[in-house]
Design a protein that fits this description.
The complex is a heterodimer of chains A (about 90) and B (about 375). Chain A has two helices and five strands. Helices cover about 20% and strands about 30% of the residues of chain A. The termini of chain A are far apart. In chain A, strand 3 and strand 4 form a beta hairpin. Chain A has about 90 residues and is of the alpha+beta class. The mean pLDDT of chain A is about 95. With about 375 residues, chain B is mostly beta strands. Chain B is built from three helices and 27 strands. In chain B, the strands form seven sheets. In chain B, strands 3-2-1-27 form a four-stranded antiparallel β-sheet, with no helix packed on it. A four-stranded antiparallel β-sheet of chain B has the order 4-5-6-7, with no helix packed on it. A four-stranded antiparallel β-sheet of chain B has the order 8-9-10-11. The longest helix of chain B is centred in the middle third of the chain and has 4 residues. Chain B is globular and about 60 Å long. The N and C termini of chain B lie close together (about 5 Å). Chains A and B meet through helix 2 of A and loops of B.
Chain lengths: ~90, ~375
């Protein structure tokens, strides 16, 4: 399944500045793997070496928050990569 | 070539370069504005190469590499990362790359990195791809040596030292964990903490569990090590294994607590420290608000205060372990950066101090490059 991935500004150095890019996959893990192929280095900044979403990263399939990378997109066509941080 | 000072801060990287015969300094940057920069280190085997340990508040840790003296940077293809954890193991993930050390002169392109939580990593290709050093990270004692006793900024592995006579002879330090030594290139390790105090532990004579803040080895006499510890200043002359508390010779009202310690490039008997208040609740600021550097020129038997040009009162500086360095030229010169974003230069071995930059973000590291 082809999806649009909306990219938060801290990650756009990997997408040549693009706010949205395309990726293929039925699950979030597959989408991120394809994203990594197209934009090397991007995945590790969001997902640690144990496969966990980093503390200040949030992923949404449409408006549904993703807690586990094995979750399927279930017809959603947009994956949002959100950077969530507060403080100075 | 003139010295360049690379400044790693909580909000990016800056460079200071001297002008007008070191009377003025020009600042450039920021590079990577908004990134948390813990260390910027030049490769002495190829001075065009610099490595930078970075992350942002949102994103995971990484390493950037420059091959043109810091003009352009490229991200590592495989930043330091622990191996995938097996079932039943406690998962470990690198939160930040804290320390960078070039490998032995005979091993072109080799680098070591220390991380938080405590991990040791090695690159064979100039910092592009990093592998865990299993001999340390998976050592049967690792869970006891690095149990996650965090400093306020997390458990950190730092002060990775390579014996210039022997590429297989390595040291490292963990806050909190202690100093460790390998004589086989990192395949096996042993604690090296005898003589160091660990006043914060129920048993202060433990073999590990200490808090070395900064450990240095003299390049001209690699058997001479110094350590600024949470509990004092120490010297070790190998092959001895027992550290001597040379900070005991510091003035009692000053004490011997601090973070950085730096050595004279040519004289293993000369070292500088920057004492901080380690009393009561550990303010870790200049003692009595009067900052001073102390120097020994006789391997720690006596210490002399160096404060000419530094503020005489109401200056509550904190200088972190990577934020002080010494350049062989001119004369030699000392430099330190504060958590309040100031950079100070001490000409003539710290005899006279001058503020050379201010208003920077919180400074994590100050390193000299050519």
């Amino acid at each position: 399944m082809n999806c649009t991935v909306r990219v938060a500004s801290p990650l756009r150095s990997y997408t040549g500045g693009a706010q949205a890019v395309q990726a293929q996959g039925a699950t979030v893990a597959e989408l991120l793997a394809d994203l990594e192929r197209r934009h090397p280095g991007m995945r590790f900044r969001m997902i640690d070496e144990q496969g966990r979403i980093r503390p200040h990263i949030r992923l949404f399939a449409g408006s549904r928050e993703i807690r586990d990378l094995s979750e399927r997109m279930d017809g959603e066509r947009v994956l949002h990569l959100i950077c969530a941080l507060s403080g100075g | 070539m003139a010295t360049t000072l690379w400044i790693g801060t909580r909000k990016g990287a800056f460079a200071l370069r001297p002008a007008a015969g070191h009377r003025r300094w020009r600042i450039s940057g920021p590079q990577f504005l908004g990134h948390i920069i813990h260390h910027i280190v030049q490769d002495p085997r190829d001075p065009r190469v610099l490595l930078m340990a970075a992350k942002t508040g949102h994103l995971g840790p990484t390493v950037f590499r420059s091959s043109d003296r810091g003009r352009t940077w490229h991200e590592a293809a495989a930043p330091p990362a622990f191996r995938k954890t097996a079932d039943g193991e406690t998962p470990r993930a690198v939160a930040k790359v804290f320390w960078l050390t070039p490998g032995h002169a005979s091993q072109h392109g080799s680098w070591y990195a220390g991380t938080s939580p405590a991990g040791l990593f090695r690159s064979e290709d100039g910092g592009n791809r990093w592998q865990p050093v299993a001999g340390f990270n998976d050592h049967p004692m690792n869970a006891r040596w690095a149990p996650g006793l965090a400093t306020p900024d997390g458990e950190i592995l730092h002060s990775i030292l390579v014996d210039p006579r022997d590429a297989l002879h390595l040291y490292l330090a963990i806050s909190i964990g202690g100093v460790f030594e390998s004589t086989d290139g990192g395949r096996d390790w042993a604690p090296l903490n005898e003589g160091c105090a660990a006043d914060f532990l129920p048993d202060p004579t433990v073999p590990f569990g200490h808090d070395p803040h900064c450990v240095v080895l003299h390049p001209g006499n690699p058997d001479r090590l110094y350590q600024q510890n949470h509990c004092g200043i120490y010297r070790l002359d190998r092959p001895a294994r027992r550290w001597q508390r040379v900070g005991a010779a510091m003035p009692k009202r000053i004490g011997d607590i601090g973070f950085p310690i730096v050595l004279h490039p040519a004289d293993p008997d000369t070292a500088w420290v920057l004492p901080m208040d380690g009393t009561k609740v550990w303010p870790r600021t200049s003692i009595d608000g009067r900052p001073a550097v102390y120097v020994t020129r006789n391997a720690g038997r006596t210490w002399r205060r160096l404060d000419r040009g530094l503020p005489a009162k109401q200056a509550w500086l904190t200088v972190l372990r990577q934020a002080m360095c010494v350049a062989a030229r001119p004369d030699p010169a000392l430099y330190f950066g504060t958590t309040a974003g100031e950079v100070w230069s001490g000409r003539n071995g710290g005899a006279s101090w001058q503020r050379i930059a201010g208003h920077l973000p919180e400074i994590y590291s100050v390193t000299c490059a050519t």
